[in-house]
Design goal:
143 residues; mainly alpha; Arc Repressor Mutant, subunit A; 2 domains; three-stranded antiparallel β-sheet; 6 helices; 3 strands; globular
Length: 143
């Protein structure tokens, strides 16, 4: 194993360790009913899981907070809808195949059929829009 591969492995391991600690901290803060702090930690964990670059963080945070606000107002408990909206908030517009791959990476499992059905539901509700460009359909959060 080269030193570059070793370094990449070490960095990934450290990042997973940091994420694990942040999630534990979020849980402890939530147990103390400090909801605002727990919310901010959950936002940070989501951003780190998606691999955002530091210069993009402020825009990512704004979009994610908008999505989180909508999810709270609408009282959405569906994990897949949450994941779809959070991925789109953090990564921007993408086609259904890419979105499915990102949701799978984000939450561990996802099927293209379910993602497509949830997108249709969110389009009907006026949250998402689908832009057709040739044969490709790009999904994005409606402005």
């Amino acid at each position: 194993m080269s030193s570059k591969q070793l370094k990449e492995k070490d960095v990934k391991e450290l990042l997973f360790n940091v994420l694990d600690r942040l999630e534990k901290l979020e849980s402890m803060v939530l147990d103390q009913r400090r909801y605002e702090e727990a919310y901010m930690l959950s936002v940070l964990v989501k951003i780190l899981k998606m691999g955002s670059y530091p210069l993009e963080l402020s825009n990512d945070i704004k979009r994610l907070m908008k999505v989180q606000e909508w999810l709270g107002v609408e009282r959405i408990k569906d994990d897949i809808i949450r994941a779809i909206l959070e991925v789109l908030a953090l990564k921007g517009p993408m086609n259904i195949s890419t979105l499915t791959r990102e949701v799978r990476r984000y939450r561990g499992k996802a099927s293209r059929r379910i993602i497509r059905n949830k997108i249709k539901e969110l389009v009907r509700r006026g949250i998402l829009e689908v832009i057709v460009s040739g044969r490709e359909k790009v999904v994005r959060i409606k402005e």
